[in-house]
Specification:
Radius of gyration: 21 Å
Structural class: mainly alpha
Number of strands: 0
Length: 427
Amino acid sequence: MTNQTKSSAVSPIVVIGALFFIFGFVTWANSTLIPFLKLACGLKTDFEAFLVTFASYIAYFFLALPSSWILRKMGFRNGIIFGLLILAFGSLVFIPAANTRSFGLFLTGIFIQGAALSLLQTASNPYISIIGPIESAAKRMSIMGVCNKFAGIIVPVIMGTLFLENASGIEAKIHDPATTFAEKEALLAEVLGRVYTPYIVLALLFTAFALFIKFSNLPEVDLDKEEPLEGEELKSGKTSIFQFPHLFLGAFCIFVYVAAEVMAGDIIGVYGKALGISADISKYFTTLTLTSMLVGYFIGIATIPKYMSQQTALKICAILGVVFICAAYVTDGYTSVIFVGLLGLANSLMWPAIFPLGIKGLGKFTKTGSAIMVMGIAGGAIWPLIYGYLKDYAGMHFQLAFFLSVLPCYLYIWFFSVYGHKIKSKA
């Protein structure tokens, strides 16, 4: 570590771990909100329902660079507090959205939450990357991933149980010609009423954690001074963020990685339902994906960098992604769902490896570089819509659409792991 002992880093790691748990809980709630809002708001197509992920992830594209500016002005601790309060506000927007049955207002609340997460991620990811040697950053990021994916494992169970109880029966009644208009309205009101308590509780918890941060001893860290330019970067006298091509290649790698992760995590329930599996069962499939990711994180913690480098881990994960997506395409039923779930294992060590490789050697540009990397999370906004368009409007079979959407992601990640992260500017 640069200016800290291992013992002094324990407390910050615990706090950042708690933040990553919050990231996971809010983000992976999308897997439940997609079928929930499709039912509650009477959406006609999956393409419309996938606007949930679009609203959540597109916020990163627009807010990542402003988040970097906010962190410069407010500092690390105050930036986190501000982000948590915005997150609480976004959660409260769900209440009037449910009262008015407004899909647009739900999307607004989700976008506000995404904006808050953009600020929190822009602060947390470089912090955990540079708090120790860059060579073992993937190991620390894997620990953060455990916190994130543990939240992701439990959120479909909690939210799925609360929001989608008897979803198949309610959906059947709503579409039953014998059900009167008044009965349909009563059913929808009951479904939307399930939103109130969970999101009020979340808003209170986020506010309470912001107060905890306010009065904690979390140290301020000057990310711009934490990692000086070194080696070739120092000799060449870099003066612009655009002189680091590996950063932008890494940001695009984050873009396609998050796209693949969202397809495997948030869309797996829709995928399972398209295979003829009941919504009462498929609502829990995200837990399968995230359990696979959790296994991968533990493997990363045990093996990086002692037995393999983060670059090697990234290559292995990219190859596994290609194998699993091909297997999901050529199989059917629960077998196909299992292979989609196993994409979680392939995805597990990607963020922990891509992010440190992307910001390596940026020195004083680390904070801005981190924001650019975080912008790549917008891949999660675009890819489900591509899949939805191919399936709903282009008339493509859903398995072929899924395969063609996801395969290119893993091929590019393989390129970055082998060659892309090594590309340096000659200027």
